[in-house]
Specification:
CATH architecture of one domain: 2-Layer Sandwich
Distance between the termini: 60 Å
CATH topology of one domain: Heat Shock Protein 90
Structural class: alpha+beta
CATH class of one domain: Alpha Beta
Shape: rod-shaped
Largest sheet: 6 strands, antiparallel
CATH superfamily of one domain: Histidine kinase-like ATPase, C-terminal domain
Strand content: 15-25%
Helix content: 40-55%
Bound molecules: adenosine-5'-diphosphate
Strand order of the largest sheet: 7-6-11-10-9-8
Number of helices: 15
Amino acid sequence: MSIASLVRKYGLLLPGLLAVALTVGVFVLRINENLGLAELQRTGTQRLELYATSLNRQIDKYAYFPATLGLERDVIDLVAHGKPITDTVNRYLEQLNQRAGTLSIYLLDRRGQVTAASNWNRPDSFIGEDLSYRSYFTDAMRRRPGRLFGIGITRGEPGYYLSSPLLADGEVEGVAVVKVSLEQLEQSWATVEVPVIVTDQNGVVILASVPSWKFTTLRPLPDAERRRLERSLQYNARPLPSLGLTREQAFGENAVRVRLAPPADVDGSSKLSGNFLAQTAPMGDTGWSLTVLSPVSGINAIAWTRAALAAVASAFIGIVLMLLNQRRQHLHDRLRAREALQRAHDELERKVDERTRTLRAAQDELVHAAKLATIGQISAGLAHEINQPLAALRTLSGNAIKFLRRGDLATAEDNLDRIGSIVDGLGTVTNQLKSFARKSSGTADPVDVRRALDNALFLLDQRLRHANVAVSIEVEAGQATALCDANRLEQVMVNLIANALDAIDNRPSRTLRLRGRREHARIVIEVHDDGPGLPEHVREHLFEPFFTTKESNRGLGLGLAISSEIVHHFGGTLTGANHPEGGAVFVVTLPAAGIGETPWTTTSRS
Ligand code: ADP
């Protein structure tokens, strides 16, 4: 079955198939997207925990560092008591800074001015600067640990500021500040598989695995807020553009699908645009948030591939089902066609049987009619046959009366005896006629060929004698027994012999040779005359009904046609030919009796 014929046959089903394939595709897409997102969320949560832990560890490392400075006598002496040991403290802070690997360490007095700093001997030293505006100062003055991510004013270096109050006799006399770099951590993040960012309490990205994202904001900043931040100098007049994230859909508590617009200046980071699953966790008391951005595109690709596969598979299954259905339909149609054919065949057989029965009945009637016609033909001879004995009877009976009157009883008795035997002879003739005229059973029984020939000759006896025909019969009684109906075989023989008599009627020599023999399982009977034989044009039409060369009152042209039909009915054959010795020979073959089963069946009733 070609696709074209499928389209023809299932024209309306195809759009349905496409709709099903599409629905399946969309369904599988949604499921896979959701499964993929759930998986992404799981791995995202793990990453978030991992990164948060490492960031916390980094920050915690320095948590108590500023407070320990308050334990140093020189520090307190300088800040609280104004001892002239700035130099000593400066060197101490410098050494400490080097050992701890921090960016800088410095001390502020109560007014917020830098009194000592690790970078005391550098040109960009903080010494003497007023940092009272920094939140880590004000926080520490309020006895709270100060925490701030900011960009240094002098060197523009970003860093994490940790501060602690310096106490003397229970009073806050100054503030110790340590600035640490988180760059190392940031660098290690550069190799992570998914982007990760840290935002501070202002929503400004302060750490990012993608360098260009640093000092952008998650949300566009309101003007008032922007002005406040500019005033605080926390980000050292950085422009703080928006990262370009838009929230799309929330997933659970701390996960949200976001869209990241491609950056205006298309550089290497442009590949980091598109859809991401953003998962955020707060970073302890810092007010910061850590966000992991897992790209959704991978899941989308897998989900789309699976959806396409599912759609194709469902379409394929659909087509296979359609084909199977078509095949089933086809088989069903074939079965129905076969049943219809069988019914038509049965009906035809029934009709043939019916017609055969009708035909056979008509045929039987015809055979019988032909037989009566034959009787008509032979009756002229028979009338003569009967007239002679009747005349003899008349004379004998008249004489018998005369002899009785004379008293010649012996002669009268003799006459009466002769009358008796003549009447017996007449009885034989009428019996023969009666038996020939009766309707046949049509069933096959063993028939002695010699007997059938004798009976036929008897009926034609008058004609034979009148024409002075020399008849030779070359078969003995019991020598050849055919399976046939006796009456029908006699009818065939009467026809053939009568034809032979017609043929030799005006010939100078008139002989008729009748032969009968058995050849294997067949009985062969020959009727051979020395008439003119069968010319070509006669041979061609010999067995056709109503074919005759005789005058209208002598032949109907049915004799051979009916004889042939009778012989065929009993499984035999009838042929006519010219005999090599001259004249015509008609040969009848019939199954021999006593050979086993008859090779035909008959339902004829006549
Ligand atoms: P009918 O005897 O009524 O003509 P048949 O069917 O018996 O019809 O014979 C058909 C024709 O066959 C005859 O008219 C005759 O011409 C030819 N025929 C039959 N038997 C012989 C025969 N023994 N010799 C010559 N011709 C014959």
